[in-house]
Amino acid sequence: MKNIPILLACSGELGCIVLQYCYKKETIIAVLTDKKSLAIIDFCEKHKLAYFAGNARNNACFNFVQNYRNSILLSVNYLFLFDIQILDLFEYKFNIHGSLLPKYRGRTPHIWAIINNEKQAGITIHNIVLECDAGDILFQKKVPIKYSDTGGSVLKKYFYWYPKVIGQFLQLFREGELSSPQKQNERLMTYFGKRTPEDGKINWNWQRERIYNWVRALTPPYPGAFCYLKDNKVIIRKIVFSHAGFSHYTLNGTVVSVQNNAFTVKTPNGCIDVTDYTVEDNIPLTQGIILDQTYV
User: Fold this and answer.
1) Considering the chain, what is the average pLDDT of its residues?
2) Would the pTM of this model clear 0.85, i.e. be above it?
3) Are 32 and 52 in contact (CB under 8 A)?
4) Which residues of 147-177 are buried (b: 16+ CB within 10 A; e: fewer)?
5) pLDDT per residue over 135-152, tens digit each?
6) Residues with Cβ within 8 Å of residue 69, at least 6 apart in sequence
7) Which end of the chain is more exposed for a tag (fewer CB within 10 A), N or C?
8) Exposed e or buried b for every residue in 39-55, given b needs 16+ CB within 10 A?
9) Count of alpha carbons within 13 Å of 131, Cβ hemisphere only?
10) CB neighbours of residue 108 within 10 Å
11) Can you say whether the dihedral through the CA atoms of 71, 25, 138, 50 is positive or negative?
12) Which residues 6+ apart lie within 8 Å of 57 measured at CB?
């Protein structure tokens, strides 16, 4: 198959890495992005690539993309869904999604996978349809999740694997060597929505294994798991399981001890040591205080 050019729809750091790869290895004819992806915009301007930056919904970019209807529409970490009028312009339209579909459709799937204690994430290339992440599967790559992995470390694995997977896929596509598209099994589908920084609040009634996964999933570059000390936010970046004893009658979220650079908290099935954290306004922690309790 001839070397069809690519209209790349991409956002964020992951999208920028793929853009840089495709610019070197493929023929990029134009770019779709969002207004906050400044590195992508800067790259396009530096290399004189035509681009549309903004919300693509309601056919806002239709006049732009119709000039490139003979391209491959390739979507990578792009923030917006496409309307049917835009999809109908393209014979070939592919999305790269960061999970093993049909599991974990939706936003930031690797974060949800860590939270749910999955042992692997993945990369799926599928046909774009109107419904989010629902098109036939064309290519998949498994990406292991270690128990020590964080949201940031899995993202770095994606930085490494996305370009390689895309390159391998496009080669197979152009050589006509792709396997037959596989329909997604809707009975196995799971969907997880967009996360906001305020979704990172810890519930101290969770078992400590869930709290561990919660914290490691949300460490930088993500906003972080958190709780409150009185009215002051405590950002928690790392915890380890503690051997400290506790009473069943002690309220969950109670600080049972404070060390120089760490503090220990009681949960339903054991204590945890918080070893990397920041307290808003540098409010000191004291033994016996109960996190997230309302004080008057």
Assistant:
1) 95
2) yes
3) yes
4) eebbbeebbebbeebbbebbeebbeebeeee
5) 999 999 999 999 999 999
6) 89, 90
7) C
8) ebbebbeeeebebbbee
9) 9
10) 21
11) negative
12) 80, 81, 83
Residue 233 β-bridge partners? 228
145, 122 contact by CB (below 8 A): no
Which residues touch 154 (CB under 8 Å, ≥6 apart)?
110, 113, 114, 121, 143, 145
- In this predicted model, what pLDDT tens digit does every residue of 34-88 receive, in sequence order? 999 999 999 999 999 999 999 988 889 999 999 999 999 999 999 999 999 999 9
Residue 260 — pLDDT band, cuts 50, 70, 90? confident
143-148: long-range pairs with CB below 8 Å, 24+: 144/119, 144/120, 145/110, 145/113, 145/114, 145/118, 145/119, 145/120, 145/121, 148/216
Length of the chain in terms of residues written: 296
